[in-house]
Amino acid sequence: MAFFTHDGCQLHYEDYGHGTPLLLVHGLGSSTLDWESQIPVLSPLYRVIVIDLRGHGRSDKPDEHYSIAGFAEDVAALIEHLQLGTVHLVGISMGGMIGFQLGVDRPELLRSLTIVNSGPEVKAKSFADCVQIAKRWSLSRLLSLETIAKGLGKLLFPKPEQVELRLKIERRWPRNDKRAYLSSLDAIIGWGVRGQISKITCPTLVVSGDRDYTPMANKQAYVDEMVNARLVVIEDSRHATPMDQPEAFNNQLLHFLAELDGTPLPVNPPMKKTRKQKP
Fold first, then answer.
1. In a 3-state reduction of DSSP, which class is residue 20?
2. Do the Cβ atoms of 68 and 41 come closer than 8 Å?
3. Domain coordinates in residue numbering, the chain
4. What is the pLDDT along the chain (279 residues), one digit of tens a residue?
């Protein structure tokens, strides 16, 4: 467990293994704990760094306006604090948005980018989009974190055999600071760098669960706008792919990184739960 300070905020991070740096960035309301199925697999091959974003986990939760650009600045500050040079960055959901923002603002820090169940904007494009965003904004304020946790657990992990994953959400989510959680949600709504993603030239892997919230066609559309990106779909997976399909996710990530770095693979697990989309 370690901390550093950026812009008056003490930020928690953890550092494992040796080698090329690999930075994992969690999503809204989450923390370093969400990478527990990745760290033991990745750290024998890479120097794995996980961060609690501002307002999350063990990091400070200042009473201020949060933004995706601000989160990206915190991540950049960690890279510079540890003198990592360029990193492989993996971000899920809000962490993927931070990855896009960093790719636009600080491309010199990225060796590669892996985006998991995310996109380069959260903007209403239709009346239905407006309704969904307004519904989420309102319910997040009206409901307790405990109630949100139970609903989220059922949404992410609906199968009977996923009871342990549901319980993790139910235990972890209420640990959030409600004010910081809402400020982070506000940072997402209306954010976007879609018009600038063609500037991101580092190799980019976009990973999507086949049952994620966002239609696959939307993800393929933004992948097609990028100069060096490809989309991989992981089957029988929802929004929390690294948790509900850890083996398939780890396998895809390790193969992607091995292509770039020439690193060995620990094993050759079966690929039956994935299918590739067009590059």
1. coil
2. no
3. 2-123+193-276
4. 799 999 999 999 999 999 999 999 999 999 999 999 999 999 999 999 999 999 999 999 999 999 999 999 999 999 999 999 999 999 999 999 999 999 999 999 999 999 999 999 998 888 888 888 888 889 899 999 999 999 999 999 999 999 999 999 999 999 999 999 999 999 999 999 999 999 999 999 999 999 999 889 999 999 999 999 999 999 999 999 999 999 999 999 999 999 999 877 765 443 434 444 433
Going by C-alpha positions, the residue among 128, 102, 119, 95 that lies closest to residue 29 is 95
Number of other residues whose CB lies within 10 A of the CB of residue 34? 23
Query: β-strands 47-51, 9-16: how paired?
Result: antiparallel
DSSP letter at 231 equals: E
Q: CA-to-CA distance for 112 and 88, rounded, in angstroms?
A: 5
Alpha-carbon Rg for the chain, nearest whole angstrom, is 18
Look at the alpha carbons of 117, 278, 222, 218 in this order and tell me if their dihedral is positive or negative.
negative
User: How far, in Å, are 85, 114, 173, 177, 274 from residue 245 at the CA level?
Assistant: 31, 16, 20, 28, 10
Phi, psi of 92 (to 5 degrees): -110, 135
- In one-letter notation, the amino acid at residue 139 is L
Single-letter code of the amino acid located at 190: G
**What is the C-alpha separation between 115 and 243, in angstroms, rounded?**
15
Which CATH fold would you assign to the domain 2-123+193-276? Rossmann fold (3.40.50)
Burial (0-12, 13-18, 19+ Cβ within 10 Å), 224 = exposed
Kindly report whether the global pTM for this prediction surpasses the value 0.90.
yes
